[in-house]
Design a protein that fits this description.
The chain has 74 residues and is an all-alpha fold. Helices cover 70% and strands 0% of the residues. The chain has helices at 18-26, 28-38, 42-73. Helix 1 runs antiparallel to helix 3 and helix 2 packs antiparallel against helix 3 (42-73). It is flat.
């Protein structure tokens, strides 16, 4: 999988496939949590928690849909 210009910018083959991609997308939740926590303000922390909850609520149906397709494919 080429990830950039040139011959040296080639990604490695990951056997996990769709689960690896979903796990990498789930790391974005940590950014909003840490941003709210680092501000040292209780309202910003609550906003970060709210954002993290929204991100997780959108990722869970996507994970279930991708897992069901992967299991049906074998």
């Amino acid at each position: 999988v080429p990830v950039g210009p040139g011959d040296s910018a080639v990604g490695t083959v990951v056997d996990a496939g769709i689960f690896f991609a979903l796990a990498v997308m789930g790391v974005g939740v940590l950014g909003s949590l840490m941003a709210g926590w680092a501000s040292a303000n209780k309202f910003s922390l609550l906003g970060g928690l709210r954002t993290a909850a929204q991100l997780l609520s959108y990722e869970l149906p996507m994970l279930l849909a991708a897992a069901s397709v992967a299991m049906a494919a074998g």
